[in-house]
Amino acid sequence: MPDLATKTARYEELLATALVEATVAVPAETPLATAAAEFEGMAEAYLEDGRHFREDGNDVDALAAFSYGHAWLDAGARIGLFDVPEEGHLFTV
Predict the structure, then answer these.
(1) Could you give the residue ranges of the DSSP H alpha helices within the chain?
(2) Containing H/E element for 23?
(3) At the N or C end, where does the chain have fewer CB atoms within 10 A?
(4) Considering only CA atoms, which of 88, 37, 47 is closest in space to residue 68?
(5) What is the pTM of this model?
(6) In the CATH scheme, what is the homologous superfamily, with its name and number, of domain 4-83?
(7) How far from 26 is each of 2, 11, 76, CA to CA, in Å?
């Protein structure tokens, strides 16, 4: 089993990569586009928070933040807000 620091680094990379790969799949200037922006914004905020926690040596909260951030993207992909790669390990759709 990987140690906490290794797992935290892996989840940080997972979230950062998922943010790059997810693209908005709904029409612009609709309520769904607003929702997509909010989901993406939450994921970005959790990535930033997680990085802050890591800098402070708090891998437990960093791992939680990276996990929550990815959950926002994954949920958005599942309800159709984002187009995401169907192959690979980034998303569960």
Answers:
(1) 4-21, 31-55, 59-78
(2) strand 23-24
(3) N
(4) 47
(5) 0.92
(6) AF1782-like (1.20.1270.90)
(7) 38, 27, 11
